[in-house]
Write a structure and sequence with these properties.
single chain, 432 residues, alpha/beta, Urease, subunit C, domain 1, TIM Barrel, 8-stranded parallel beta sheet, 5-stranded antiparallel beta sheet, 30% helix, globular
Amino acid sequence: MRVLLLNAFFNGRKESLTVVVNEHGFVSKVKVGIYKDLCRDAECVDLTAYGLAVPGFIDLHAHLRGLDLSYKEDEISGSKAAARGGYTAIIDMPNTIPRIDHVKALELKLERLSKGCFVDFGVSVAPPQSGDIEELRKLIERPEVMVIGEIFPEDLHLLQVVIKAVEVTKVRKVVMIHPESVEFVDECEKGLRWICRPLEAEVGAISFVNKIVEQYGGSRLKIHVTHVTNPMSLIYAKHFGFTVDTAPHYIYLSSDDEFEKGCIAKVNPPLRHSTTRDAMQYYIKYLDAVATDHAPHSIAEKQVQFSKCPSGISSIEIASSLVLNLVSKGVIELQDAIRLLSIGPAKILEIGEKWGCFKPKCIASYTVINLDKEFTIDSSKFYSKAQFTPYEGMKIRGVVEATIVRGTLAQLDGEIMTAKPLGKPLGDLIWH
């Protein structure tokens, strides 16, 4: 048994709570007020001096790399970075080497995550490029598999295979779509990629997905469109009943940053014109979630010619603070930030009723934040192997003070507090 003493965001207001957590990481009792006497016979974690406890943040879209890409990032470094960023759970993307599109690769990835992940995790799998429905069926039957995708532009034609496999297995799965159509995608010099990968590429992909779902069915699919860059894509996706997220770089950065910083700010879909970026700040309230799209590469890979360097921004340690900073700027309310970082992602994954709440039978995963504290982004202090960022030197307000994973203190004041990885598959937890 463990006792958490918290100042929590509870029923829409700040409330002092004593939360008793059982050995499985679930809340067994909650008392309003601080009852230190309950600590006599239990391990006690007092975080009342650190800030406000909110439902644990979930990153729907992270690339931990690992396996043959461990030189970029691995499960240990990436999940420590996630814990520092306040993420109590992450969904790991499948575009690794080997690609997670067959059972052997999935088993290997799960082994690495089980041994090295410091936060809870769900695995995403890719549809086999061969179109093998049976192989995909074996993958999506696994409870550890929370998501199918991110399905990239070149694989959108495999969506009908995904639909058939899901219908055969009679399971309900989130299918994550990277919204760009191949026919609209070209390449330009730095600062101009928003022209060569235009808005039409996103809208075209979203429209294509809707047509496939209408043609082949897909009642068991939950289509989620990830990292939209503009309000048009958001509105279009919502019109079709899809859930939608964006990444912080589409709210903060623009094509001017791509021009100025080159490869460090190169990402797909591309950073758009500053007017589109500004519009995204207004429309952020209409999103279902904000995900990091944490996509680390080695610095050597990012220092080559712009046309040859890989796309991706590493931000999992600071992404949640970038969202919290919008609260201090008056762009969103605290309730919006909690929804975008925690409640929204949990709802998409269909674990919302149990996740990070302050009542019995809830999963006791919380993030402790301080909205008044400022810090300057310094990538040299990242746990991530990708120690560079287009946000370098930016001063923001909103700090993650602590990360609690199923009642265990994973991170405090920027330091990892547990010697051994804590992570468990989310799919196992929700059926507990």
